[in-house]
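Good morning,

Attaching, inline, the backbone tokens for the sequence recovery test we're adding to the shared suite. The designed sequence is right after.
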């Protein structure tokens, strides 16, 4: 999504972040395979560090998006009743698979990371369009 915002000169209009629902990898960089696959697409991830989502995120962001049903359930359990963020599955914004989930690429080798990046690129276009329509 960052690359898309840069290409369209929209970075000042959006704040993006990534967080996990569990603290397993807090402070760690992304998987080296993810960094390599993203770099081939002109996206730099090496500077990122994992963090765990917190309650403030549900007020700070308009959208909190989950990769799969388990994470969606965890997010909805954490979300305060008066939170302003819309919590949903990321692939809700997919034209090709709006009821699907993003698979964990960890055990899929380099191909798994490429597949996930393909999905994220497709969803980014639709998510941006939805955000600009509001």
């Amino acid at each position: 999504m960052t690359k898309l915002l840069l290409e369209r000169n929209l970075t000042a209009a959006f704040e993006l972040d990534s967080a996990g629902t569990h603290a397993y990898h807090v402070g760690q960089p992304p998987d080296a395979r993810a960094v390599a696959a993203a770099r081939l697409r002109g996206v730099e991830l090496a500077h990122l560090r994992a963090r765990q989502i917190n309650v403030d995120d549900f007020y700070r962001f308009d959208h909190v998006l989950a990769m799969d049903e388990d994470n969606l359930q965890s997010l909805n359990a954490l979300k305060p009743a008066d939170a302003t963020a819309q919590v949903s599955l990321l692939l809700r914004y997919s034209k090709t698979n709006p009821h699907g989930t993003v698979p964990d690429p960890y055990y899929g080798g380099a191909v798994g990371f490429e597949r996930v990046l393909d999905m994220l690129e497709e969803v980014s276009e639709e998510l941006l369009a939805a955000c600009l329509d509001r």
